[in-house]
Amino acid sequence: MTAPTGRHFTEQDLSGATFARVLLRDATFQDVDLSGTRIRAAYLDGVRMTGVEVPDLEIYGELGRLVVNGVDVVAHVEAELDRRTPERALMRPTDVAGFREAFAVLDRLWAGTVEKARSLGSAQLHQQVDGEWSFTETLRHLGFAHACWVGGVVLAAPSPWHPLDLPWDEAPSVDGVPWDRDVRPSLDEVLALRAARRASVGEVLAGLDEDGLARPVTSATPFMAEADSLTVAQCLRVVLNEEWEHRLYAERDLAALAG
């Protein structure tokens, strides 16, 4: 980036401004009004907030260390999430049997979510809620996740993509990787691709033993190509996490659409 650094904004009204692909490292916010701020796909390592008033704040994301008034709340949050949905603990398997169980649990949970989706009109399945992915886009993104981590890394396929695959919004543009945000496939079309991707995972798990979980793998696609310490188990856990979290988002948005 070539923009000047160290600029000062004092007594200015930047309400409604949009900052996209902007570096704000080591920035200082003092006596600012951040009401209604929406932050998405941000990296907040080392952020410190003091003297803040937080009447209403929501955080969704991966939490490593989050200290609130001197208390690291991450362990409490994780325990509460596991208490609310006991199946969540199964998404952290350590052996082959655990991985097979975790994917079977996801199959069962997603079946219920898809049933809810079928009760809506086809147009609603392409409708976004609060700027998040539509239900169809969510399933398409999970197809991409399977292709990237299972097809491209575990199975070392150099081009595991399907035209309906949808990378994450901030992903780099890569030749040969589909990224069609305007296509409107039917639910059955997307579910057919999803079934094929799930079958690939099933084949991997069927032939897997404990040593196979620890097998080192590298990406055959441009995604994660720089990672040199991946294992089969790590790749499968990424897919489990994607499936688990995006189903929760889907359930939330389907409830809003139905309401």
How does this structure look, described?
This protein is mainly α and 259 residues long. The protein has a domain at 89-258: Four Helix Bundle (Hemerythrin (Met), subunit A). Helix content is 41%, strand content 3%. The protein has helices spanning 74-84, 96-118, 135-154, 187-206, 210-213, 232-258, and strands at residues 67-68, 71-72, 216-217, 230-231. The strands form two sheets. It has a two-stranded antiparallel sheet. Strands 3-4 form a two-stranded antiparallel ribbon. A hairpin with a 2-residue loop joins strand 1 and strand 2. Helix 2 (96-118) packs parallel to helix 6 and helix 3 packs parallel to helix 4 (187-206). It is globular. The model has no long low-confidence stretch (mean pLDDT 93). Residues 106-249 form the DinB-like domain. It holds the Pfam family Pentapeptide. This is Pentapeptide repeat-containing protein. It comes from Nocardioides alpinus. InterPro entries: 5peptide_repeat (IPR001646), DinB-like (IPR024775), DinB/YfiT-like (IPR034660).
